Each structure stands twice: as C-alpha cells, then as structure tokens.
Amino acid sequence: MNKYVIGVDYGTLSGRALIADARTGEEIASAVYEYPHAVMDKTLADGTPLGPDWALQDPQDYLDVLSHTVPEIIKKSGISPVDIIGIGTDFTACTVMPVKKDGTPMCFLQEFKNRPHAYAKLWKHHAAQDKANRLNEIAASHGEAWLNNYGGKISSEWTIPKIWQIAEEDPEMYDSMDRFIEAADWIIWQLCGKETRNSCTAGYKEIWNKKTGFPPDEFFHALSPKLTHVVDEKLSRHIIPLGEKAGEITPEAATLTGLRPGTAVAIGNVDAHVCVPAVGIDGPFKMLAIMGTSTCHIMMGTEEHQVPGMCGVVEDGVMPGFFGYEAGQSCVGDHFAWFIENCVPAAYYEEAQKQNKNIYQYLSEKMEKLKPGESGLLALDWWNGNRSVLVDVDLTGMMLGMTLQTKPEEIYRALIEATAYGTRMIIENYRENGVPVNEFYASGGISQKDPLIMQIYSDIISMPVKIAGSEQGPALGSAIFASVAAGEEAGGYDSIFEAAGAMGRIRDRIYNPIPKNVEVYNKLFNEYRVLHDYFGRGTNDVMKRLKDLKNKVMFS
Amino acid sequence: MNKYVIGVDYGTLSGRALIADARTGEEIASAVYEYPHAVMDKTLADGTPLGPDWALQDPQDYLDVLSHTVPEIIKKSGISPVDIIGIGTDFTACTVMPVKKDGTPMCFLQEFKNRPHAYAKLWKHHAAQDKANRLNEIAASHGEAWLNNYGGKISSEWTIPKIWQIAEEDPEMYDSMDRFIEAADWIIWQLCGKETRNSCTAGYKEIWNKKTGFPPDEFFHALSPKLTHVVDEKLSRHIIPLGEKAGEITPEAATLTGLRPGTAVAIGNVDAHVCVPAVGIDGPFKMLAIMGTSTCHIMMGTEEHQVPGMCGVVEDGVMPGFFGYEAGQSCVGDHFAWFIENCVPAAYYEEAQKQNKNIYQYLSEKMEKLKPGESGLLALDWWNGNRSVLVDVDLTGMMLGMTLQTKPEEIYRALIEATAYGTRMIIENYRENGVPVNEFYASGGISQKDPLIMQIYSDIISMPVKIAGSEQGPALGSAIFASVAAGEEAGGYDSIFEAAGAMGRIRDRIYNPIPKNVEVYNKLFNEYRVLHDYFGRGTNDVMKRLKDLKNKVMFS
User: Fold this and answer.
1) Three-state DSSP string of A510-555
2) Which of A175, B409, B523, B554 has its CA 20 to 30 A from that of A246?
3) From A547, which residue of chain B is nearest by alpha-carbon distance?
4) Looking at beta carbons, which residues of chain B come within 8 Å of A550?
C-alpha cells in the first residue's frame, strides 16, 4: 500500500499544498490559496496607517491556507488520510511575529488588533534599517567574530532589527508578548501543539551558531538595555536541526486540515533552502540557484569557511551535518521585467502581436540569433544593488558598448548575461575562499520557462546546468522533509539524504556549456570582473555619490 | 533703393537658396530643391555597384539647385535682378570631385559615366579609411609638425585619402582628371567661370597652412609615388581667404540662375563655418555650436595653438585675419533619435497620442519635471565614437546609475546631459590649452526647437547660451559673405566683421545658467570627466576590446 506526504509552501502572497508519494516523490495533487490580507504595506485592515517601508501580514491567512488547501488536495487525490504519513512546511523568511506563550498571535487579541507591531513582519519589512545600521556598527566596533559568518553585515530584514523596532517603538507590546517567533516555526506550533525552533532560520536570521550559540547578553545590552535578555525572554536557545520530526498532528489541527491526529510533522523550514532536496541534491558542493525576481544560491559544505560577501553560513542550515552556505543576487527576473516595462519600443509590441507571440517570446527569438559577444555590450547587474559578493545596496546598474546600431534585444541579452556573470562571481568567490562548487542546479520560474537564459548561464559559468524536475520545488522539498519526519517504518525515509536521492528530481534536459561560447564569455567575464571591482570595491564610488546627490536634490 | 543678396546652402540631400536684404540681413524669400540622385551608396544611377562605405553624388544636382531655386526666390520676392548685388554659397565638406581643366566633372564625360571614381565623393564617403590609417602612420613616423594642427589625426573623410583612393583603384581616372576640387569651389567656378580655392576647405581638409603651405612633395611620395606632385598637378597652391570676391556671374551662369551678368560671387565656403557671421559673431573666443545629428564647434582665436583633440586650426579658416578652430561631437541628435526609436515603451506612445502630443514633446514635458541629479544617471555620449577631444571612433556609449525605478525620461535626459558634458569637455580643453572661450552660441535644428535642451546646456557649461536668430543659418551666412563680395559701394559691406554685426542676429531669449543647477552639474561633470578619462584615455580599454571581440565573432 502506497504512503503519501504533504508539503505546504508559504509564499509572499499565497500558500500552496502538494501531496506526493512518500517513496518516489511523484506529485499527485496540489492546491493554492491566496492570502486574503496579502501584504499590508499602507494600512492595517481597519485602516490604521503604517509608516514607510512597512510590510505586515495577518497570521490568520496562514491558518486559512491549511484549512483550504489540505482538505482540497486530499479530496482531489482521493487518498485516505490513513495513508498520509507526514506533513512538512516551508515559509518566507525572515517573517517573524510576536505571540503569547500559548502561541496566540498578539494581533488576535482584541486589545492589540489595531497596533501595527502586533502583526507578522514580512521578510520585506524594511522599516528597521536604522536598527540594522546601528547593530552593524556596534558589532563591528565590538569585533564580534560572528559578523563574518554573514558576509560582514546583518540585514534589516532579519530578526534582531525587527524585534528591536518593537522594543523601541511599542515597548508595551514588547513587554506583553511572550515569544517572538518565525512564521516558519509558528505554523509548526499550530500543527503539533508545541513550540519548536528550526536551525535554518535561527542560523541565518537570528545570529545563532550551533557551536557558539547566540551573541552574549552584553552585546544585546549594548543595542538597548531592554534587549539584554531577549534570547531567553523572547527567543529560544533550543534549536532543532532540519530533518527532525517536530511532533504530531493535534486533534485541533486534525479538525483544521482533515489529517489524522498523530500524523508526523517536520521541523519548520525556509522556502529557498527546502528546494535543495527537491532537485535531488544529497551532499556538499552542489549549488542550487533558485531563480525568480531575485536569485538565492544555496549550497552545502563540509567546513565553516568565512567567505566574504555571502548571506550566511549555518551548520545544519540546509541538511543536518553540513554547513549551509547562502548567497544571493537581489535583482534577476526584476531586471528583465524592468527592461520589458521601460525599454521595449512600440514597434516590437506591434510586431509580436502580429506574429501572435508574447513580448518575452518575441524578444527571445531575436536574442537567440545573436552570438555571444556580437552586441559589444557589457552590463553590471546592480539595478537593485548587489547582495553577493559586494553586499552593497547603494550600487546601481551600468551598461557600456552602446552604438547607434544597438538593438533592444541586444540590451536585453546583455542584462541576462550580466546576471549570469554575477552568479559566476559568487561561484568564483567561493572557490577562491576554499569552498569548491562542483555542480550547478537551477529551480524557480526562470529555470522552468526560459531555455535560452539557461544556456547562457551554462556558457557563462562553464558548467552543466541541471534543471529542477518539479515546478513546485519548495512544496516538494517540504514533502520530502515530511517523509523523513514520518520515518522509514511508517513508509517514508529515515534520512534526508536518502529521501532527496529518491524523491528529488531534475529534468532530462541538461544545459551543457558550448565550448565556442565559453571561450567568448571567459573574455567578457574578465571585463565584467574588472568593472565589478572598479565600481564595486571603492576605486570609483561614483554610483554612491550619484545616489547621495539624488537624495540631496530630491529633498532640497 | 534697397539692395539684396543671395545665399545658397548645399546640404547632404538638398540645396536651399535665400534672398536677404544686403544691409540688414532681413530674409525675404527662400526655396529648397532636393537632389534627384540624393546619395549614391549602393550603386550608380546606371546600376554599377559600389563597394562598402562608398557615398557619391552627381554634380548635375548641384547645378539643378541653382537653376531651380534662384529663379524661384527672385520670383517669390518680386525683387529685380538689378537690385541683387551678390551671391554666396556654402557646401558640405569635404565633398570633392575630379574635373577636367575647364571644370567639367569627369562623370559628365560619356567614357567615364559608369566609373564610380568619376563622381563627387560625399563628405561621408568612408571607403578610404585604409588610406587615412596609412597616411597617419607615415605622418607620425616622419614627425610631421602639421599633424598636431588636426588633433593628431587626418580623417578618412578628407581630400588626400580620397584622391589617394582614386590613384590606387582607378589610375586611369587619376591620369585623365586635371583637377581635384571641393564641390564648394567647383560651384563657384560654375558661377564666375574661373577656378578659385577657399582657405577654409584648403586648411581643414587639404592639409594646407597659410604660413607653411602644403606638406612637401617627399611626404606625398612616401604615401605613393603617383601622388608625389599631387598638389601642383591636381590641387592648387593659390588659396584665397574667406571674405574675398571670387568673380562675377558669367553670361552662362546668368542664363542658369536669372541673375545679372557681373553680379558679385563670394569665395566658396563650408556649411558649418559660414554660420558664424549669421549669429553676429565678429571676433575671437566666441564659440558657435551647430547642433544637429552631430555638433560642430567653430571659434576664432588670435594665435595658432595646437590644442589636442580638435578637428583643425586654420588661419583665415572662418574669417580673414583670425585662426579658425573646429571641434566636434560625432553624435548628438543621433543619440536622441536612437533612443526614441529603440527605447521608448509602447505605453508612452499611447499616452502621447491620447494627449495629442508628439513623442518628443511628451518626453520633454516629463523630463522638464526632473531636477538635475534627480535621476542618479550619468552617461558617456559616445554612441558614435568621440570626435573631440579624444578623436577615437572605437569608443562606445556608457550609462550608469540605473535602478528598478529608472524611467525612460530619465535615460533620455541623461543622454542629453551627456552631450552637454561632451561640449563642456571641448570648452575646458580649449581653455586648458591657452584658448579662451568667452561666449557660447548655438544654431541648427536642436537649438531652434528645444528650449529644455538649451537650458540644460547653459546649466552644464555654466555660460549664457545665445540662439541663432535665423533658422537658415548657413544660407544667411552665405548671403552675408555675398554682401561683402559685392562691397559697400554696391550697397553691401567692405568687411565681413561689419556685415556680421549688422546682418547676423540672435534671438531675444538667451538661456542663462541657473546657479542651483550649475552647482549640481559641476559635481556631475567631475564624475563624467573621471569616467571620460578612465574609458577614453587608456586606463581601461574595455570598449575597444569589446569592439574587437564583436568583429571577431561576427566573422567567425
């Protein structure tokens, strides 16, 4: 009798559930539920206004995903809950919220309903930037060694700046809340009735390290006396590696989801990191690029190297026993969308329409005819700053080589190539710092939809590019972890490595580097690298001075 | 009784005649005639194919301009030929042609009709680039001092490379032709029946210098033995300063034009240089920028300075007694046209149409709302190489500062600003080399049509910008020289300076620099200058390497 597992992927605007075979990973059915409150970035639902750069969510939406999608896929698949042996979830991160000690979100309480700080702060809540800046200054001046595990900088998107903002702006809220918890862990609490904390978000977002734990209380005191005991008072020192079982479905969760009480629940996970087993990666030095509006690069290593410019290195941060390395590019699909919206001439739209093609397809066909190097163009992919390896949000885009003959498709291709050079910089940066990168996988929308882009990536990084076999990488990854939480005896697996090998998959078509193209792109990458360092490492800080000037004239 | 003068301006595709008051310059009537043969760049009229980069014209078209436009303006104006005291002309340059000793173009002869080298080589005939390269090498290796009068480089557009091409590719033509002459001087020959040679084209295009004459025969011998006596055999050592009278209308020319025999004819002139008196410039250190698809900067000085990167310095090259300096930007209006054609999104066209505006107007209105520095963008205006001060056709465009918020009008404004920084580089280069630039005038299409661009120029060069009062600058300039050829006794002027002061004019509206904008643009110009030198003076020759690579992959 086949057994099945469920994976639930919580994105920025919706949640998606998938039911899969617990041994083979075969996908049986899936369902999506859009968050009714979406992202609150102007006001709360009751009209209470929010400041600039806020981004909140209502955790009721997360529960509603469970109550809508899980019963739906059970019904669609025709599978009996008796044969569903586990559930796993993944979440955007760092999406984090204040709750009472029984797990009730502060925003569920009548008296705090209209208080912005009572809600979940979404990953892209950027209103704690001043806190992040002060934190980084203090950490640097204290010579905190952990800072180098995060490429030298803590982001305003992460836990400590966000809780600090509450402590400073709404001290009453800070005092009333018992716990401050990642949504990734909170949803697990709702399923199995007890609080757990996963090693992935703890490591990447909360400055936790498996060997050295959290920064000392003195450090938090230096931020603000109110934060002195923040770890013990609001967070937790009990961190559980990925791949463990968190608990079992409670009777309440069974009512909510239609699953049987006692069904295994996996420890919480993060939407990018959880994709790794979904492509079958089961060991170190295999990089997965999750390519969407931005790109996240996840890889496991066998040692802790402090590689400059990465987003973080965390033991057990991807799979137990390995060091999870994360790097990123803050703007990939967003580049292409910017170009399409702002730079494609009317004549191209007309011609595309005539040929009954969408504009991406039309441009792709024109681009495909171009040989590498033919446009004479070269760009730096910094339209939204540089996350890795320069970690500098104040950098901006650059393109050169334009002539009166330059065509839109050449510019478009140059932008695509620029993002691939950016990925190659990340790969070479790892290698130069003692971390090999031996294989390259891609998942996410771009990898699924755009063969030309994938070929360009292969030619530029000079490695085969393997493509995720599932279009629902995170949900499948969560299902794989669910199979491990259930264990072999129940019909799943005892090891995430074994489960990844059996349930994860790639497409048959692998993009292999074309030697002639590699030769040209090696030359172009050398040029990219010189300009990358010239503009990005302080030789000519013109981009920052222009941004300063822009800010000055805008407010003068 | 009022007296009148005629100016005829020969452009690339048409000729335009103007009749004006000989004392005040008031424009009475004008007429245009388009060349029936236009530019022959693929085949001759009979289908004889041309090589790449050829550009020829048929001089019959030049005669047809006279026979069509001059009678038309006489008729339109109602002025009697008795009261028309002079005619002046200006031409594109270097547009040059082989003729027999009576002035008959070789292409008018039946036996040479189907021979490409028999026709006028238009200024933009670029098929002698290999000759120009060899000429420059030889001149540099001989240490020829005159080379520095041309910014260190002779262009393939000029006389010697063009006649060398005939000598090498069609030696029979070379032997049969008696003279090789600028169209500017040939048209005067047709009007007054004798060959004259003007100091402007001789100086700027033929390597003639008032003090030292032509390069020695040994130099020409080094190019090719066939060219050893080229000056004496095909050109002329008798060079006449601008502002002189060439002769008088012959009976044949009177029949052609409807003018009276005996009417004064001015020495030939060039379309850019002739504009100087038309804006009333009558002395040194006042720069005129003629702004169209490209920009030409003409200024007079009192001494011969060898300023690096200019196009030429020629005694009597603009007005007699002064040194005429010429510099240029190879791509100005062409930048903007490239942008409009390739980078303006469909949504902008739709919105412009809705508002019943053309796209330039629509973009202008959006641009006008931007403050200097607000876009955060900076560009190098090298889409078509850099003519001054780097003299390098292999440079290409660059832009930086783009973000996901960057809008098309910001890019457009950055391109405009880049051309203004390019002009400022030219101005500062003169100043740094001992040639003051005290005033700035603009003529040509852009100066007439675009107030915003003119304000940006004023803010960036930090000088008032005075705008030509006539939309027909070259034709008016030619008419002014016609008045001087006729002389005061006949109702004109004895001095070009006096005539320029009285007949030339600027608009009432002068664009004055806005101090707040100047302050911002000074900062941006400093950034431009650093990048200009980084990419343009050899620190990082990435643009040239990309061009090389492009050529390699295109033909591999």
Assistant:
1) CECCCHHHHHHHHHHHHHHHHHHHHHHCCCCCHHHHHHHHHHHHHC
2) A175
3) B376
4) 373-376
- CA B301 vs. chain centroid, Å, equals 19
Mutate to test the interface with B, among A349, A378, A402, A412 (most CBs of B within 10 A): A402
Kindly report the nearest CA distance between residue A396 and chain B, in angstroms: 5
| 8 Å CB contact of A527 and B535 | no
Most confident of A304-308, B27-31, B150-154, B328-332: B27-31
List chain B residues with CB under 8 Å of A346. 344-346, 349-350
- In angstroms, the separation between the Cα of residue A416 and the nearest Cα of chain B is 15
The nearest CA of chain A is from the CA of B487 a distance in Å of 46
Contacts of residue B370, Cβ cutoff 8 Å, sequence gap at least 6: B409, B410, B413
Q: Which residue of A has its CA nearest to B521?
A: A549
Q: Å from A524 to nearest chain B CA? A: 8
Q: Do B383 and A401 touch (CB under 8 A)?
A: no
**Of the partner residues A331, A373, A550, the one whose CB lies closest to the CB of residue B373:** A550
CA–CA separation, A154 vs A176, rounded Å? 27
Give the β-pairing of B14-21 and B4-10.
Answer: antiparallel
Between the alpha carbon of residue B481 and those of residues A355, A390, A507, B96, B491, the distances in Å are 58, 63, 78, 22, 13
Cβ contact A402–B398 (<8 Å): yes
Structure tokens at A20: 């899969």
What is the C-alpha radius of gyration for chain A, rounded to an integer number of angstroms? 23
Which candidate from B341, B396, B408 shows the least CB-CB separation from A342? B408
**Residue A528: closest C-alpha in chain B:** B542
Nearest-Cα distance to chain B for A413, in Å, is: 14
User: What radius of gyration do chain B's Cα atoms show?
Assistant: 23
For B482, the token pair is 């016609």
- Picking from A345, A374, A383, the nearest residue to B342 by CB comes out as A345
Question: ipTM value of the model?
Answer: 0.92
Backbone angles phi, psi at A283, to 5 degrees: -165, -175
Give the pLDDT mean for B169-174: 98
DSSP letters for B372-411 = TTTT--EEE--BTBB-SSS-BTT--EEEEEE-TT--HHHH
**Angle (deg, nearest 10), helices B496-503 and B473-486:** 130
Phi (first) and psi of residue A49, to 5 degrees: -75, 150
| Residue among B536, B464, B472, B471 at smallest CA distance from B6 | B472
What pLDDT digit, counting tens, does each position of B188-219 carry? 999 999 999 999 999 999 999 999 999 999 99
Classify strands B286-291 and B439-443 as parallel, antiparallel or unpaired: parallel
With CA atoms as reference, the chain A residue closest to B522 would be: A549
Residue A267, both tokens: 């420890």
Q: What's the pLDDT score for residue B392?
A: 85
- How close, in Å, is residue A527 to chain B by CA atoms? 7
Q: What is the DSSP string of A175-242?
A: HH--EEEEHHHHHHHHHHSS---BHHHHHHHS--BTTTBSPPHHHHHHH-GGGTTHHHHHS-S--B-T
Entry field: residues in chain A: 556
What one-character DSSP code corresponds to residue B119?
Answer: S
Report pLDDT for B52.
Answer: 86
3-class secondary structure, B490:
coil
pLDDT in tens, A6-43: 999 999 999 999 999 999 999 999 999 999 999 999 99
CA dist., res. B514 & res. B517, Å (int): 5
Do B550 and A374 make contact, defined as CB atoms within 8 angstroms?
Answer: yes
Q: Which residues of B426-443 are buried (b: 16+ CB within 10 A; e: fewer)?
A: bbebbeeeebebebbbbb
Residue of B nearest to A404 (CA): B383
Angstrom CA distances, A468 to A441, A505, B52, B344, stand at 7, 6, 50, 36
Tokens of A371: 């040989």
